[in-house]
Specification:
By secondary structure, the protein is mostly helical. The radius of gyration is 23 Å and the shape is elongated. Helix 1 runs parallel beside helix 6. The chain has helices spanning about 1-25, 55-65, 65-70, 75-100, 115-120, 135-145.
């Protein structure tokens, strides 16, 4: 039937679209050019500035775990920047998922995947439920986020 052949074809298109979107957005994470090493103003001497809570947390982590801090782990401004970038990507994914769902771009979103077609990939591990598998909508969102 049409529904047995449509999901893989549609999923292929969605995976291709998601891959192209990720490749196209990879340049957003590349540095724009040479940035100054110090972002603070040099007008105020460092000794006159009170350390912020974040800076004291960085110093405390470095004192407690010097081996990790030496390798870049722990609270750093770079880690906070990446946390923000990942959070914004998460919001984009939520909005894109809502848009795709509301405009019918996810076909048969509530229909569970057929285990005869998808095999163990359609299982969610909850065999006690009435539908022991993931829905078509969850599968498409999962693949799009990978």
């Amino acid at each position: 039937s049409l529904y047995a052949t449509a999901p893989p074809r549609i999923m292929f298109k969605l995976v291709t679209l998601a891959t192209l979107a990720m490749v196209g957005s990879a340049s957003a994470y590349a540095p724009a050019g040479a940035r100054p090493a110090v972002l603070r103003s040099k007008a105020v001497p460092r000794s006159n500035v009170q350390a912020s809570v974040f800076e004291s947390a960085m110093q405390s982590f470095e004192a407690d775990f010097p081996e990790f801090a030496k390798r870049g782990f722990g609270p750093t401004t770079k880690a906070e920047r990446w946390n923000g970038r990942h959070a914004m990507f998460g919001w984009f994914a939520i909005v894109a998922t809502g848009y795709a769902t509301s405009h019918g771009l996810i076909p048969n979103a509530d229909q569970p995947l057929d285990t005869t077609v998808w095999g163990p990939l359609a299982m969610d591990g909850n065999m006690a439920s009435a539908t022991p598998g993931i829905t078509n909508g969850r599968a498409i969102i999962l693949i799009a986020h990978v």
